[in-house]
Amino acid sequence: MALMLQLFYSSRMSVVADNGLFYARDAMRVLLNCSGLQEVDVALKKKNCWNQFSHEIFYHHGVYLVAKTLGDYNFPQFPETLHYLYKLSVEGPKRSEDSIITVIFLTELLNNFFRDPFPEEFLVLFRNWVNDSNPAVSKLSLQKIASMAPVVNQIENVSSLLLSILDSLFSKDKTVIIRALLTLRRLLGNLDRVTYSSLCIRIASSYCPLMDHGNAGIRSMAIRHFGELLKEMSHYTWMLNHVVLGGLVPLILFLEDTEIRVVKACKYTLAICASELKWPTSCLFDDQNYSFELVVLNICNNLLISHMSCVTEMIADTLGFLSSSRAYLRRASVILIGK
């Protein structure tokens, strides 16, 4: 493990010998052969792994290949390596790159020697890594957790795991948010409805702030996933009505988004909202009959009939969009307030 870290840092510093080989890479190959793991060295050579270590851009894939190949050959030092990695993870490495290498290596070892879900003591590590300060660590952890979707109901403390993923939705890194949204959707698609219902309000509320995210991909995903949640939790509408009403303003305004994927997501989710609230508006989202002002008028009329108490709050929410830098949002806000 120490040599693998040296490989990374030497590649970044371009410390290359005259023959083009890294000292740490050579030492690692010697160590493998002296440990009775000659087959691993040969297999890695066939996979062109040693040459990949010469290029920083391929480094993480090289770490993955080493870990996977060791697992494939059932190397006898597995218990000691696993203990070392666990100790390193619990104590917390000082350098962020140490965390990335530890996550990659530990994931592959566990994949080879354990069936999903991982034992709880290891799953706790991945749960903690979800909100690591290094985005690469967060995404690696989220990616592994997503792969456990088929066995999500066997995970101990699954609620705690889901809450950690919800926290990562507020990351400053948009790629982490996207990975968290995808992971959450995969898990929820397999989650038992009892656990799902206990968390649905918290999950739905977490989607709402992302509907106004500066990234169109995140906006469209959050809006569509909000709709998926409402559809899956249709038997719990009475619990979610206030969340639905609270999310109506961005759902309406972003019907005017310049990004087609956002508009489609809004139409999809608003049709589900209308169905859950027993509003006869779904036909208005058909492309042939579509008119933004007619949709707004119809929703407002239904609000006045069934949820008059929400109108003041919706006006207040809409006023917040009047200062938006996006012209389509300001225009849509004026129309909604007017209606």
From TrEMBL:
GO terms for cellular component: cytoplasm. InterPro entries: ARM-like, ARM-type_fold, HEAT_Maestro, Maestro_heat-like_prot. Transmembrane segments: none annotated. It comes from the Eukaryota. Residues 127-338 form the Maestro/Maestro-like HEAT-repeats domain. This is Maestro heat like repeat family member 9.
